[in-house]
Amino acid sequence: MLFDFVRSPCALLDGLVGSTAYDAVLDAYQAWWEGEGCAVSDAVDRARTPWVRMFDTAGKRVDEILYPPEYWGMLKRGYCSGVLWRAFKDQSLLPSFLLIYLTSFYDCGLSCPYTVSLSTALPLSKYADAGLKKRFLPSLLRDDDTVWQGATWMTEIKGGSDLGANVETEAVPSGSTWRLTGDKYFASNAGAELAVVAARPRGAPTGVRGLALFLLPRRRQGGELNYSIRRLKDKTGTRSVPTGEIELRDSEAYLLGAAHEGIYIILEVLNISRVANGLGSVALAQRAIADAMSFAERRVAFGRPIGEHPLLREQFEERVRNLRAAFALAWEAGQLLNEVWQQRRPYSDRYHLFRLVAHLAKYWTAEFAVQTAKWCIEVHGGLGVLEEFRVERWLREAMVLAIWEGTAHRQLLDALEVIERKQAHHALIQYLDGTPGVADLRQLVQTIDAHLKLQAGERERTWEPLANRLAQATAEALVRRLPNH
Amino acid sequence: MLFDFVRSPCALLDGLVGSTAYDAVLDAYQAWWEGEGCAVSDAVDRARTPWVRMFDTAGKRVDEILYPPEYWGMLKRGYCSGVLWRAFKDQSLLPSFLLIYLTSFYDCGLSCPYTVSLSTALPLSKYADAGLKKRFLPSLLRDDDTVWQGATWMTEIKGGSDLGANVETEAVPSGSTWRLTGDKYFASNAGAELAVVAARPRGAPTGVRGLALFLLPRRRQGGELNYSIRRLKDKTGTRSVPTGEIELRDSEAYLLGAAHEGIYIILEVLNISRVANGLGSVALAQRAIADAMSFAERRVAFGRPIGEHPLLREQFEERVRNLRAAFALAWEAGQLLNEVWQQRRPYSDRYHLFRLVAHLAKYWTAEFAVQTAKWCIEVHGGLGVLEEFRVERWLREAMVLAIWEGTAHRQLLDALEVIERKQAHHALIQYLDGTPGVADLRQLVQTIDAHLKLQAGERERTWEPLANRLAQATAEALVRRLPNH
Amino acid sequence: MLFDFVRSPCALLDGLVGSTAYDAVLDAYQAWWEGEGCAVSDAVDRARTPWVRMFDTAGKRVDEILYPPEYWGMLKRGYCSGVLWRAFKDQSLLPSFLLIYLTSFYDCGLSCPYTVSLSTALPLSKYADAGLKKRFLPSLLRDDDTVWQGATWMTEIKGGSDLGANVETEAVPSGSTWRLTGDKYFASNAGAELAVVAARPRGAPTGVRGLALFLLPRRRQGGELNYSIRRLKDKTGTRSVPTGEIELRDSEAYLLGAAHEGIYIILEVLNISRVANGLGSVALAQRAIADAMSFAERRVAFGRPIGEHPLLREQFEERVRNLRAAFALAWEAGQLLNEVWQQRRPYSDRYHLFRLVAHLAKYWTAEFAVQTAKWCIEVHGGLGVLEEFRVERWLREAMVLAIWEGTAHRQLLDALEVIERKQAHHALIQYLDGTPGVADLRQLVQTIDAHLKLQAGERERTWEPLANRLAQATAEALVRRLPNH
Amino acid sequence: MLFDFVRSPCALLDGLVGSTAYDAVLDAYQAWWEGEGCAVSDAVDRARTPWVRMFDTAGKRVDEILYPPEYWGMLKRGYCSGVLWRAFKDQSLLPSFLLIYLTSFYDCGLSCPYTVSLSTALPLSKYADAGLKKRFLPSLLRDDDTVWQGATWMTEIKGGSDLGANVETEAVPSGSTWRLTGDKYFASNAGAELAVVAARPRGAPTGVRGLALFLLPRRRQGGELNYSIRRLKDKTGTRSVPTGEIELRDSEAYLLGAAHEGIYIILEVLNISRVANGLGSVALAQRAIADAMSFAERRVAFGRPIGEHPLLREQFEERVRNLRAAFALAWEAGQLLNEVWQQRRPYSDRYHLFRLVAHLAKYWTAEFAVQTAKWCIEVHGGLGVLEEFRVERWLREAMVLAIWEGTAHRQLLDALEVIERKQAHHALIQYLDGTPGVADLRQLVQTIDAHLKLQAGERERTWEPLANRLAQATAEALVRRLPNH
């Protein structure tokens, strides 16, 4: 087919972004996946949720996650390749984003540990005092198998959208540290050596304003476990990251930044994972198209490969077109974050522009990933729904991408908010000024301005189609700004 | 919410179709599902693919499918309620369709055994000679637990779309019977006492014209197994029907109808399953909306149930609107089939109209089911992708509905063909004449007429959006003709 | 074969015990198992550990055990047949023992819920004050599906043999009730509506003297869950009883009997389960022999059924001989318990005699069950280790029987203790006076008297062969006293 | 404890056999297992039976076994270490036996591929013509990851004991090769590149005399699959070797040796696997004792580690004693085989002596392995039956060892036969002449001579206890001849 670049994430990056300082790293990483990693990833997915060995035979609580040994090899590969340490060495998120894109093409669940480790390292480096930073940061930035992992634990049993109402974990000061007690219900990368945890200091106000962010190590100063894994969740997808329920009981923790600014720091943490989610979604969609392509080239019906049938051919072309657009949108979110990630309150307009683009990207690329994975199954016909052929896996993964870090509903409303409060849509127009095709976008912004005059409930109710158009138009404009467009 | 009728398939049927002679049967059947069946269905899905005990301890091949006992209870319930025997007693497919709708609301995979049993009984009753009919039909029409099941086995390893090229099973005459040898790759309801099987008589022409349809019992006249189950497929969904790979080796079989008309009889068989698939898709979508509704009423965010948030509320309304339309379309396919199912070649125009509506319905309702199931997961947020809560099940099921009986791609092209060859779109307009809103449809038909003038490849390549509009417009017109609109 | 009675537990009971008032009940129960129960039991075993739904979608902790519906039907069958209520109605444990024997022939894990329910009802009826008894006992004694279940939770993480050291659950008085806090590590019949729980009242002495027994309902007076199921254990066998880890956190409980007599009441509770375990072991061994017999009659080698080969035939005969002896021993333990179960401290000599016989029976029959199950697998050859044929199941079950209620090691030492302290071996001789063959036993008792003069460590070290001989000789003497010997 | 050597297979070998030329190889191999292999083996066991991908997405039959990648790494490690190539390079089975012992300590199922590869290479090297040998043998003897594997497929559906009656696979000559058609029911190492297969040439006599042995490659000369894997068996243990059902359909094969001597060659093949089974059983028992020891040192009851309790301590001592004896017996079988493996018919007396010792060893060590594994579980108490702790695994493995290569029943009768026909028990006495303690054995031989005078049925019926004593006495005599006794 014409779309050969779709088969390889390095080829797509090269085609759309062009050469970077990391080409050799990426090539080696991709070669490892093609040679060994894919088979390991398949085996991990096939094995379903790993067991947790909660106690050892001596009756000591150990909470050991029994992934097969090769899982750990696969996991460490990305850290060693520099998904974390390069960001700090080069003071740029670019290598992280590139490696996360590649990882996600092969195993988008595995990108989660990398992302949450980054989301732990960043506030630690930005908001912790020197002692804490010195004590913990280097372990996260190792380039060998002894590297520590991070984790981000916000959501509790009542749901993750409304953190202000639903975080009930309480933090109590204890000397220079804090003690946290509560249960985290969707705890990504359970078992990590460090986590950043949302909690409410005793006496703090209700709502989001009362939340603070804490750094919580896996082991207490005395070496005992500092948190318990109540269980791992049986997720349908992204089995390469252990998602658990975590029990905190007087767990030692360290405040990051000022308690009253906690919610802003939490949102900064989420910025990273939303951007990573966007890139991962695009990579997953690329993978689904690539797999569909391989199949369509080999499966014959009515005398020729099905990929040559006009209707299916048209479907491929449309999806490759959208792949470019989706990539452009997700990539721009990453570029903008790379500009603003060191900012603190009060944030610049560029920060708000980033937020708008990030929400649109998270929303739109996840939807694209789901629809593309679903279509990939259909291309495979009956084989698509057989576990044996693994094609159905991409849809299971994509559904998780569409939900964690905030569902479409959440992204839509957050995008609306930053438009209402910060006029971020105007910043967008300004930012894209001069890009071919921005005229359409300009018209759309006027429509949005009119929409903002609606009464609140109505404004929200009818927002979805407009937001969809905004995401699409932005993506299409951004495609034209890609280096190798 | 306003959509209370969505919670119950009987309520929806009552609301849209009105009262029928089967209300008491349906009420009792729904009550059984609510009281017992749902839990059984959940357990069967949770248990994944059942084992096949291939040999007994004496070394005799037995190919026994080890579903839990309660599965068989659940399965027989539908037969006893009349999903098969009522159709023959009342000479109407209506009770079958009603019961399949209900079944599919609770377990759409279970509708498959019913559908393929119906698809076995119909050609047997229509095309078999009196002796064969007398010998086998009554067993299929029993109203107790000794009822036999049917099955329809067409697809082979190279794919199911292009049967003409891919059916390699050979039939050789042997006295008054035939012997079949070949492998069926997607054999629904493996283990059934009877199957209708596509095969090519030795010496018959290549392509679809050389196919014939045979009746094949599970046991030979001497009592031995007449086919082998090579294995059951590990499907992601519809685990309530055992789909297997079947080996035929000199298997005893009986020709149904004339050999040279085989392909038409095969298509008649598929008519039934496509209609059933459409009804099942709508029922599944109803279920997904119902589950989302229950959740949205209970989950609170930002101080009120999420179902009251304007954006989500809007999404509910849109889906309920589409549910009505999808039902109308699927139901119409069933009504038309009920008119034409006794026809033989040469078929009437009404038959071709049926085919058009059936293809549109199969295509459009399956897409609706998938999108609704996907949305239902998103409404549940993180809980949606946990196996524990079963919400993710509906998407696994829906993906199967979108594929078996022909993918969207197949339905689109078949619809195009019946339009091209039989001008079925004009029959549609005529059929809907007088329905409010048919004007839009009329305009669309003109567009299609223009489209038909395109060169073949181009016609196919750009057909999808037109077909989509045709399905939607037809559905919306049909809503207005529903008894209780 | 000659051993036809081995095929049916009713036949064995009839042959060895003779007719009882419960023949019709037992016949009906056996018929149900043969007709339906066996297939359900197989399916439950095949499904492995059931899931626990820990939270509902509203985020409320529910700890619902997701057995398939048919499990509950199977479970309730025994209660309805009278495994509990008959004991209280007839003031005799006989019907319980008979029904447990039958149950264990088909599913020895299922006997556990019955046994622990009995072990809950007995101390409740014996030691609770009138109000408590009135409030809770009737629910346990219902004869319909609404019956409550009991459970016995003693063991904690450090092990079950040395309860005195290892029970760390603390009980604190709270008005007229108590509050318990601690973790139970092997909690049989997790999910039961009532449990009897070993705990240490705050301030009580260390060691076994400080233990007390409490009644603990599943729900608090206000309706909330009173305990949490941390998880179910993945046991290799006896999957028909959910064994869990239980968390007690200020759980409401009621003291049974005097706190300072707790350990005696706990031992009375264990008396019941040890006797039941003995009967269950014999029934399991009978089942293994029966299955081996069916196979040996059908499998042919060297021209005849393998059951007719002299060496295998000899193995059958020996095992059937041992089956009778093992039954006699287990049955006698039951008879003696039926005499003494209403006793309170200070206990009679008959009580101590019971304890000796019960320890010997628990030890010896479990060993017999394991060895017979292992041999049954060997008789089946390669088929024996295939999960498909379920033969390997009996060994998995037997291994559990050999361990819970105290391993062989524990039984041996407890038997030694009751011999040392209470001279129970002399009571045994006296009890069996006049039985043919008691002379051998008399001589053995003299050897034991000599053994008791050894230094303590040496006495324990060399006790096993003597105990083994004592169990065997007792069993063989008891065979001759069976009603239908 | 005193038994430190039990913890390490190298230490045991060093203690009992002394230093060999392979010490460094063994040390490195053991180090790999301790460092990496154990965790891989656990994961493979935990993952249960691997999937077979029967067809690829293009519909081509591929029969690919989906072990996780790390399985293949573990498997190849033994081949690279020299479990095969060293035997041919050094013309000695010693390195194979040593490596198989080590392997079995860690994963006795994995020894099966090694053993059957050896059992393929030996007849190939001994009986194939030069061309065949040159074509296939080098692939089996590679020392890198490209090494081929062998397999031995004898047993069919009616059972493996009576091959003469039950092998129905037919061989038909076809030019210089043969075509085999039939089904193998327990096919160890399914998927191997080469297999030796028992079949009956068309026209050959019934019974064992009509059997011949064939070499059968996985792929035909043209590259297509030469056999099909119908399915893998769900075994309870030894999951590190894929055991399958194999379909041969006109499969290309090569006769090994003369057709009329086939049964002798088949028995030579079994010689190897019986000896390997004996060594594997001892290694497994050692592992079970080692694990029990670790636990008994850590678990405390009544104030001290349970390993210090006199009764348990006594049990340890007895088992370590038996471990030495069992090793001596299994090792002797290996030494004798190393003497006779190059012999052809007519065999020497030494060959018959070997057969006697091999049967006794297979029988007695497997029983020891089962009993020790069972006891190891009991030592662990409740933890022993939890899948989480893997202790139960040894019993599952041991049960397979007791069955494949012939059950106890088979070994007993074969030992009796070689005594009857070849007076092998007298050869044994002669062989052990001068060994301390041989007097007891001499007396036993006289008892056996008397036993031989019994009528045939009676001789067989009462043979087991005698054979048991013979095995034990032989083992105890052999202990005294161990190099480092």
Give a short overview:
Chain A has 485 residues and is of the alpha+beta class.
Topology, element by element:
The structure is a homotetramer of 485-residue chains.
Chain A (H helix, E strand, L loop, with lengths): L8 H8 L6 H24 L5 E4 L5 E5 L3 H13 L3 H5 L4 H14 L3 H17 L2 H11 L11 E2 L9 H4 L3 E5 L2 E11 L6 E8 L10 E6 L10 E5 L11 E13 L5 H37 L1 E2 L2 E2 L4 H31 L8 H31 L11 H11 L6 H15 L1 H8 L6 H14 L4 H6 L1 H17 L6
Parallel strand pairs in A: 3-6, 4-6
Antiparallel strand pairs in A: 1-2, 4-5, 5-9, 6-7, 7-9, 8-9, 10-11
Features:
globular; five-stranded mixed β-barrel; homotetramer; 13% strand; 485 residues; alpha+beta; two-stranded antiparallel sheet
